[in-house]
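User: Reviewer 2 asked us to show a designed sequence for the structure in our supplementary figure. I'm pasting the structure tokens here. Could you produce the per-position amino acids so we can include them in the response letter?
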């Protein structure tokens, strides 16, 4: 009985092309890097999800505050009570926003570190960037606009459960999955809209400031969408790594 093309030898070095065994191009010939054992990212994923949900709720409440801010801007002589309520709500919103955003960022960074660190154990020892650099780049201007996404994309491709070994060239050939791409696009769009809103808010013209608040509302909506997609990215990539590790451990993906 003829064997099906695509079978991989137990040691991973040979690939059956339908007629003969040929060298497997997806297995790194020599592993020169330290390969840490697989460690689940489930706890970090769960905590990231909790704080992303909380942050999305905070952004939703921020929309309500922005609506109040529009009314405040258009009031020629707001009384002291209105000003006091506006100020208290502004402080409460900022406290809630940063009280959820900072933990979400911390746990997301921890999660990124773990999923990138798992790449060698899943058959991709030639990671594009180290776990530490994948996280550290998030705090460097300009680089933070691209490197975190690239780290997630690299780990996503490396966690493809169809292939035991995936070097950098093989990972790039897998294309760009829609979910991470849309997530990061929305995030960047929200950043641009927020910057435009900040510039308009500094104007002395009331109409321009009102328009800036409207842009701010739109950016919050987009950012909420990005947060929701980030939850799915975290969940799906964690699940992909768990599945691939289980297939490797059971010998079904040699």
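Assistant: Here is a per-position design you can include in the supplement:
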């Amino acid at each position: 009985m003829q064997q099906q093309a695509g079978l991989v030898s137990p040691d991973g070095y040979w690939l059956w092309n339908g007629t003969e065994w040929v060298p497997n191009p997806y297995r790194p010939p020599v592993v020169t890097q330290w390969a840490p054992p697989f460690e689940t990212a489930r706890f970090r994923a769960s905590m990231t999800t909790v704080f992303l949900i909380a942050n999305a709720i905070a952004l939703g409440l921020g929309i309500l505050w922005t609506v109040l801010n529009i009314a405040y801007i258009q009031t020629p002589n707001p009384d002291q009570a209105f000003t006091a309520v506006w100020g208290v709500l502004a402080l409460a919103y900022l406290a809630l926003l940063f009280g959820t955003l900072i933990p979400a960022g911390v746990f997301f960074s921890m999660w990124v570190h773990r999923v990138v660190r798992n790449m060698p154990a899943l058959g991709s020892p030639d990671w594009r960037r180290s776990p530490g650099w994948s996280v550290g780049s998030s705090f460097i201007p300009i680089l933070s606009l691209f490197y975190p996404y690239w780290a997630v994309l690299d780990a996503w491709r490396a966690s493809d459960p169809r292939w035991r070994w995936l070097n950098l060239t093989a990972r790039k050939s897998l294309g760009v999955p829609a979910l991470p791409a849309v997530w990061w696009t929305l995030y960047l769009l929200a950043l641009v809209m927020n910057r435009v809103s900040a510039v308009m808010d500094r104007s002395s013209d009331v109409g321009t400031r009102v328009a800036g608040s409207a842009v701010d509302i739109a950016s919050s909506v987009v950012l909420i969408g990005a947060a929701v997609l980030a939850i799915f990215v975290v969940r799906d990539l964690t699940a992909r790594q768990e599945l691939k590790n289980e297939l490797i451990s059971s010998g079904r993906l040699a």
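For the response letter, you might also mention the following. The chain has two domains: 1-30, 31-249. The two ends are 21 Å apart (CA to CA).
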